[in-house]
Structure formats: C-alpha cells, structure tokens
Design a protein that fits this description.
about 850 residues, mainly beta, 5 domains, 37-stranded mixed beta sheet, 9 helices
Length: about 850
C-alpha cells in the first residue's frame, strides 16, 4: 500500500531542519567569532585584556566552556574599576542567561566551575557614601572552585582576602541587589570547602587568618584561627574614640556543623572550639547612648568550648580579668531583636561553665581556685581576695580559702526584669578581714532591673573566721556559723528603694573581739537568734592606763573596766526588716564586775546630758524588755579631782538589780513606766536598797528614787568623802534614808540618818592635815548619838547642772543631806518630817 505524505508534514520537517541548521551555523559562527574576535573586542571595548586557548558557547543551553584563560587590567592604576590579573585553567558555566546578562544586566547561572584559578583581584574605589548603594543581583545555583589561589586587594592595594589551595562548593549562593544593615551580605543553603592560608580583613582594625580549613562528613573544621589587630592600642584609641574594646584572639581548632545563612538569620549547631585565647583591651571611651537595634537572629545549639583563656585589660594596661582555663557548653542559645532589648539579652535552654585560677582585678585581686556554673546552680571554691594597693577610699578584703555555692529555683526575665528565687546560698570557710573604706556613702538607687520580691530561702555561713575593720576598730568572729531562712528583698518607698526581711535566723561564734581606741572587748560562746541571745565571759578592758586616758581626752569621760560571766535574753526582736523592733521577756546579766573611773582633771563636757527617760525615748525603734536582771555583781566607781589625793571610791558588792518594763515608749498599748530595784552591799559593809522609777512617755522626765542604807562604819566613807569634802569620820551610821523626786531642773525630798559615836575631822584641802579648831567646832553640831534627833531634813534647792549626768544630780542630793545632817550647813531645824515617811521597804 502506498503511503501518501501530507504537504504540511513535509513543510514542518523542512522548517525544523532549516531552524536547526541555522542554530548550528549560528553556534559555529559564534564560537568561531568568540575564538578569533572576542579577545580583540574585549581589548577594544573594555578595560581588560583576555586570552584563552579554547572557548565554547551553546546558545541553546547557555553552557559556556573555556580553557587556559588569562586576564589582566589594561591600566592597573585605574582605581575606578575592578582590577584582574591571573589565569584560570578551566571555566565551565551551565545555563548562563546570556540575554539577561547582555540586555538586563542580571547575572544568573545554574552552575559555575573554576578549575585551578590563580587570580589577583583589586576592588574598585568605593563610591561616595551618600550615593545609593546598589549592585547587580547575582545568583548561582551552584559555584565550585577547584585548587584555586585567590587574592583580593582593596583599592589602595591593601590585602582584603586570600586563600591557597582553595576548593569550594556552594549551593544556592545569592547576593541581594540592595543589601541593608538588617541583611547578611551573602546567602547560601549548603557548602563544602578546603583551603590553606585563609586571610580576611573585614575592616581597617582586624585581620582574620586560618592556617587550614576543610569540610568532611558535613562538618567544617578550621585550625590555627587568628584574629589580629592591625593597629596598636594607642592608635586604636586615637582613631576610634567612641569604641570601648580592642580584641585579639587565637583558636587552635574549630569544628561545627550545619551552618545556615538565610536573610538575617544565622544558625550554627554542634560547634566545638579548642584552646581559644581571647585578649580584650578596654578604653575609657564613652560610647554613644543611642544604640542601633539588633535585627539579626543568631541560634547556637550544642556549643562546646574547651581550655579557653580570656584576658581583659584595663585602659592603663593592667589586668582586669584573667581566666587561664575555662570550659563551657551551651544548648539552645538564641539572641534576636526581642531578646536584645531585655536586661539579659540572650535566651538559652541550659549551659555549663567551669574553670580554674580565675582572677578579677579592681583595687583588689579577687581569685577563684575552681568554679562551675549552670543555669540552676553554681559553686566557687578556694576563694581569695587580696588588696593590690593601699586605698583607704574603698572597702578592701583580705580573704583566703573558702567556698560559695548556690542553687536556683528561678532565674528568668519577666517584663524586662530579672525574677530571682534562690533555694539556698552557702558560704563556707570564709577566713580573713574586711577593711571598710572612708568614701562618703552614696544613696542607693532602686534596683529597677529586679522583679520583686527576690526570695532567698536559706543562707548558710559555716566555719568562718572574719575580721571587719572600720575606722581602725576591728571586730572579729572566730568559728562563725550563721543561717538565714526565708529571706525576702522587697521594694519600698524609702531612700534606698528596697527592704529586707527574714523569717528566722541564727548566729553562733566561738568567740569575738572588738577593739576601739580605748578598749578591747571580748566574748565567748556567742549565740543569737530572733528569739534568744547568750554570751559568756564578756570583758571590756581598757587599752591605756588612767594617766594616758586623761591625756588623750579633751573633756571628762568615764573609763570602764568590765567583765561579765554570762548574758542571756529571751524574746522576739527584729533587726533586719524595715520595721525594726526589740521585745524581750527577760534579760539576765550574771556575775558582772565593773569598775568606772572618772577624772575631773579634763575640762567639763559642755554638752547637755538628758535623763534616762529621755535617752530611752530617743531610741528610734520600738523596744520593750519586761525584766532585766543583774545578779551577783560588783560595781566600783572611782573619781578624782585636781586637788584630791588619789581617787575617791564607792564600792557596791553583791549587786543585784531588777528593771521592769525597760522601753522606748514606742510600743502601742504597752507599759511605759520603768521600775528599778537595787539591793547590794555598800562599801563591803552595809546593805543598800534602792527603788527608782520614771515614765518614758512623760516628756517632763520626772523621776523618783528612794533607798535605805544600813550599818555604815563611818570610816568606810572616808575613801570617798576625804577627796571631796576634806573630812574624815569615825563612828557608825546605823541607817540612812532618802526619798527624792526630781526632774531635769533639780532634785529634792526627805533625808535622814541615825548614827552612833559619830565624829568628824576637818582636813586642810591642800595637805589633808587636821584642822583642830574647825574640827572641834564641827563636832559641836553633831551629837555622838542621834537617838531620834533629827528625824529628817528636807533636801531642797538642789539645782541640776544640765551638762552633768543623773548620778551627779543624785549625789548632790545625798551630799546636801549629809551636810545638813552632820554639820548643819543650811540646816533648818523647824523643817523636819517623820522618819517613817522616808523609809523604803527592803525587797
């Protein structure tokens, strides 16, 4: 059967044949022209000279293939164009958009291969910064370089980039047409690389070098990475006066996997940094307050750092931080635009940082032997602190050994504030001294970065010995143990902006000592909680002799010599919260032995002395002690004058005192009347009973004091009356009664004595020799036996010197009564009161 061909089929076949023929002829003609005429065209119409051995272009596929290419710039001094010099052994381009490149000036290719390129590229001089920043978009599906040697120079011929034996393969590489500050300069999906002697200079300050870099099994490794400053520190400060730090870094090895760059996002996983060494030199520069927003997103996951070393220097070149050995691991680390605006600019799932021999330098060298830190806990051991130089303006610490550890329940950022909840804090074996500085205290600013309340459930201080020195007065504790429970820091409206409260606490010390200018105070077995206090073997001993003390003081002061066997108290007091208070049901002082010495040689102290009721009322916090007991004690008071032959002495033995309702008149609905009962042996021979009371709420400061002194050998008074009254006495005072009332203006009330065989001898004030005639006259006024006469005299018109103490006023009342009774000075016989009215019952 004969097959008849349709005419249109024949025409189609002829047309296709002609078309493919034209394409073949065009390809042949183009390749022939490219081979023979393209170098001439480039030479005549561009700034470059190009030669090659072979060149093939397929118009249909856009594939380009060339070999043994040589390229160079006609005028190497022309800095307005990109300069080239070098060779490429093989160039292969797949699916190159010839029409877009020629007409639309858009470069796009599926694949590009450069085999054994040896190129030096010189960048054109940058355009005016005010000119719009645009460049032709470039996008390659794949770029590959085999055994390349690339050098890129800046327009001034300074090095910018270099790589030897470069083998590079990048998928989906693209360069944005108009990159912004919020975009990465290049983007890609995946890559592989190997090279030697990598060099990159991102700016005029730093150069980055890598000795060897390669990818294998999806991981990139780099060896001997160096970030090197290109300017000296002095030049850096001069050229960049607003920059704070100059960096230098070396890194023995770096390995990471899965680095992804997309627009403004950088993702890096499974990174390992071995033996990095970082040095930061800081300046005194004050950076601009307005910071540019951080618009990138950086994600780091499973990051490990081994054997790192960090050194930070102060502006003067001295060390600020020296961390010779650090190890760290970080998971799910993230920083982005939102987190960068928080008080803690990073987010993380967990981290672990450890190290040893860390030192931080201010005016001191703070050292940490070993430490470990995670997101939930921390531990620091072998803590030390040593002053670098003597600087009295700042607090300094000299500590050695010790441990600090903590566990966190919560440490997070909420509403741009830190929420902190500490389960426990331990300070152990902290030994050394703290010397307070002399700088003026600055008002504390409110901690605006904290979310209140800040909770610390337990704080423990264990087995520590600490000495605190302020104004050359050391306070020391040995074998100190303390605990705070349920502590809270809250916000308030006071000047410091915060308040501190503790539910309960305890403090114990084997012994303590406190040294002042004149005294050394010591105590043992110190125990203190919010409900109990005890102290054994307390002593307060003068460090200077009486003569030296008198020379050291400008005005009259007492010199104390005190020892106490035991002090204890029970109650409920609060010294740590904003609303401080003292309440004690009972306080006991057992076995006190006190000597009080006062010399009248120095000038009188011109300051007004308030009475005890006012002194208590001026205590700023609420205070109430239901009962204060002083038991089995000894009190000796000595006083001398410029004309006295040695000090006068008053001795009180078997001293017992009970004080009820000792208060500051600041507790609502609590008693304010203070009652004081004293019984003791006066001058080692005579029983003495005293009742004394006043009301702290009474702003007129009235008081009453009454007492009874029995069986007093008159000679027992001589040690005190001889220096002051220049008289001696013999005989017996069977009984002395007084019942005074007073206020800040004076004292008065009934006074009487019963005596037997009482005689006095008046002495010369200078020589203490007997005045015979005056003594005889004085004894005429004194009956040898008082019997019932006089029953009592009234002490009156005894004014108080406001610069003297209460006891000075009280003694003036007693002295006035003795003068009226014994030698009749200002005696008014008609003014008597029954003796019984003056008696005070012994209790």
């Amino acid at each position: 059967m004969k097959i008849t061909k349709k005419p249109w089929v024949k025409k189609l076949l002829i047309g296709l044949g002609i078309f493919f023929g034209i394409v073949l002829i065009a390809n042949f003609a183009l390749n022939l022209w490219l081979k023979n005429r393209l170098p001439v065209y480039i030479k005549n119409n561009t700034d470059y000279l190009v030669s090659y051995k072979t060149l093939g272009v397929d118009l249909g596929t856009g594939n380009v293939f060339a070999t043994q290419i040589s390229v160079k710039t006609k005028n190497p001094e022309n800095d307005k164009i990109i300069g080239f010099r070098g060779t490429i052994d093989t160039l292969k381009v797949s699916r190159f958009g010839i029409y877009d490149a020629v007409v639309n000036k858009v470069i796009h290719s599926s694949d590009i291969l450069l085999a054994r390129p040896n190129l030096q590229i010189t960048l054109a001089k940058p355009k005016d910064k005010k000119a719009p920043k645009k460049r032709n978009p470039v996008a390659f599906d794949n770029i590959k370089i085999i055994n390349g040697s690339i050098r890129i120079l800046k327009s001034d011929h300074s090095p910018y980039f270099a790589a030897d034996d470069l083998n590079l393969s990048v998928d989906e590489l693209s360069l944005p047409e108009e990159p912004t500050e919020n975009d990465l300069p290049l983007l890609f999906d995946s890559y592989s690389i190997s090279t030697r002697n990598f060099y990159f200079r991102p700016n005029e300050v730093y150069a980055i070098t890598v000795k060897k870099m390669a990818t294998a099994n999806g991981k990139l490794s780099a060896e001997n990475v160096v970030v090197k400053p290109l300017v000296s520190f002095d030049d850096f400060k001069r050229k960049f006066p607003k920059k704070k730090q100059l960096y230098a870094m070396t890194l023995q090895k770096m390995v990471f996997q899965d680095m992804i760059l997309k627009k403004n996002k950088v993702t890096l996983t499974n990174a390992f940094f071995q033996n990095p060494q970082l040095e930061i030199s800081t300046t005194d520069a004050v950076p601009d307050q307005l910071k540019k927003p951080f618009n990138f997103e950086v994600n780091l996951d499973n990051i490990k750092i081994a054997n790192a070393k960090i050194l930070i220097k102060k502006p003067n070149g001295e060390k600020l931080l020296d961390a010779p050995l650090l190890n760290a691991s970080i998971n799910a680390f993230k920083i982005d635009k939102n987190s960068s605006q928080e008080i803690i600019p990073v987010q993380y799932k967990d981290f672990n940082i450890s190290g040893s021999r860390l030192h931080f330098f201010t005016h001191q060298d703070f050292g940490i032997g070993k430490f470990s830190l995670t997101e939930k806990k921390g531990e620091f051991t072998d803590i030390s602190s040593e002053p670098i130089s003597e600087n009295s303006e700042k607090t300094s610490m000299g500590l050695k050994g010790g441990k600090i550890a903590f566990n966190l329940n919560t440490f997070e950022v909420v509403d741009k504030k830190i929420k902190l909840d500490v389960q426990n804090l331990l300070l152990e074996n902290i030994n050394g001294n703290i010397i307070a500085g002399i700088t003026k205290p600055k008002s504390k600013k409110r901690a605006e970065s904290l979310l209140f309340p800040v909770k610390i459930h337990q704080v423990d201080l264990k087995n520590s010995s600490i000495e605190y020195i302020s104004k050359n007065q050391p306070l020391s504790f040995s074998n100190l143990n303390a605990q705070l429970n349920n502590a809270e820091i809250t916000e308030n409206s006071s000047k410091d902006g915060i308040a501190f409260s503790v539910k309960n606490y305890s403090l114990k010390a084997k012994d303590f000592a406190y040294k002042t200018e004149f005294y050394l105070m010591k105590g043992q077995a110190l125990s203190f909680t919010e409900k109990n206090f005890s102290l054994a073997n307390f002593s307060m001993k003068p460090l200077v002799s009486r003569n030296a003390f008198i020379k050291m003081i400008d005005t009259e002061k007492d010199l104390y010599d005190i020892s106490v066997k035991q002090v204890s108290a029970q109650g409920n007091w609060d010294f740590l919260s904003e609303e401080k208070s003292i309440f004690a049901s009972k306080m006991t002082v057992e076995g006190a032995d006190a000597n009080i010495f006062r010399s009248k040689v120095p000038d009188d102290d011109p300051k007004k002395k308030p009475l005890y009721s006012k002194m208590l009322r001026e205590i700023k916090i609420p205070m109430l002690i239901n009962l204060v007991q002083l038991k089995n004690s000894v009190l000796v008071y000595e006083e001398d004058t410029p004309k006295s032959d040695g000090p006068g002495k008053l001795t009180f033995t078997n001293f017992n005192m009970a004080v009820t309702n000792l208060n500051s008149a600041k507790m609502k609905n609590k008693p304010t009347r203070v009652g004081i009962k004293i019984n003791c042996i006066f001058m080692k021979t005579s029983p003495l009973n005293v009742n004394w009371d006043f009301d702290t709420a009474d702003r007129s400061d009235r008081f009453s004091i009454g007492g009874k002194l029995s069986n007093i050998p008159a000679v027992a008074l001589n040690s005190f009356v001889v220096p002051y009254m220049s008289v001696t006495a013999t005989g017996t005072i069977n009984e002395m009664l007084f019942n005074f009332k007073g206020n800040p203006k004076g004292i008065g009330g009934p006074f009487s004595i019963k005596h037997k065989d009482l005689k006095i001898t008046v002495l010369k004030k200078e020589t203490k020799e007997k005045k015979g005639i005056l003594s005889a006259v004085a004894n005429l006024f004194i009956k040898s036996d008082s019997d019932k006469f006089p029953e009592a005299v009234v002490v009156e018109d005894v004014d108080r010197d406001p610069t003297k103490s209460f006891f000075n006023l009280f003694w003036k009342g007693i002295e006035d009564g003795l003068k009226r009774t014994l030698i009749g000075i200002k005696l008014e016989p008609t003014k008597t009161v029954p003796v019984e009215a003056a008696k005070v019952k012994k209790k």
